[in-house]
Amino acid sequence: DYINSYLLSGSEAEPFRAWVRSNFQPMMAKVGWTPAANENEDTHTLRGDLIHILGTVGEDQETIRQATSLAERYLKNPDSVDASIANNVLKVAARYGDEALFEQYVSALGTMRSPEQYYNVGDALASFRDPKIVERVLELSVSEKVRNQDAAGLISRVVGNTDDQKVAWSWLKEHWADVAKKTTMSSGPEIVKATRHFCSVEMRDDVQSFFGDHKVPAAERTLKQSFEDINTCSKTRERLQTELAAWLQQRQNGSKAGGR
User: Fold this and answer.
1) Mean pLDDT throughout 148-177?
2) Each residue's pLDDT tens digit, 30-53
3) Which of 18, 137, 187, 243 is the 20 to 30 A CA-CA neighbour of 123?
4) Do residues 9 and 242 lie in contact, with contact meaning Cβ atoms separated by under 8 Å?
């Protein structure tokens, strides 16, 4: 996840994703998509992890296809999809979803029959990556359709999603008055905490400037921790990108040598 979020440049992305697919597809084939009778909890967890790894990090087309199909089924009837993979298939499907799928998620929110089902769908809204949909998710978060106690969590997940950060952060600053109305003394720091996922000096300085002008009650310590995390990420990112590129090149050269 860390490599996927922070270290992949244009040239490293596909070799890394190919490595992920080659390593984890056989495991997924062995575990399968349908739980067996009397299957243990470890296998349930493994299946969900593999769906996340292959769908989100490996961008495996078959996993994305299966996850999208199951997500659409879940939105119509949550009981038709095994609960142990519901959260992961909804997030993978959303990550590659269009506005039509987004509308299905929003409509389904009002039909979910349990808190677990409601939050499975609600959490997955933060995984959409299309900039227009990201803005629509954030608009939804400050609307009457989302309860005040859930708004900060949704906003923080969108802002913390490394695929959406620039869009989400710009929207947050522009609509801060609306966001502030939905937050409380306890939920405000949750939004500030999301900035810990930023990874550049420029973003750190922007966060410092913005929250210097827009004070969030009880968030001083959280803001300090965010600065520390951003500094650490920005300082190590370049070195780790270099090490990743070298590792991928070594593997590629090894594969060529083994094929001769």
Assistant:
1) 95
2) 999 999 888 999 999 999 999 999
3) 18
4) no
Q: Quick check: 112 and 140 in contact, CB under 8 A?
A: no
Longest CA span, the chain = 65
Q: What confidence tier does 257 reach under pLDDT thresholds 50, 70, 90? A: low
Nearest 5°: CA angle at 145, between 139 and 147?
100
pTM beyond cutoff 0.85 = yes
Cα–Cα distance for residue pair 217/251, rounded to 1 Å: 50
Encoded tokens for 83: 């609960």
Q: What would the pLDDT profile of 108-141 be if each residue is shown by its tens digit?
A: 999 999 999 999 999 999 999 999 999 999 999 9
Which amino acid would we find at residue 131?
P
Contacts of 224 (CB under 8 A, 6+ apart): none
For the chain, the helix, strand and coil percentages under 3-state DSSP, each to the nearest 5: 80, 0, 20
Q: How far apart are CA 53 and CA 59, in angstroms?
A: 8
DSSP string, 111-155: T--SHHHHHHHHHHGGG---HHHHHHHHHHHTSTTS-HHHHHHHH
Place of tokens 């038709």: 80
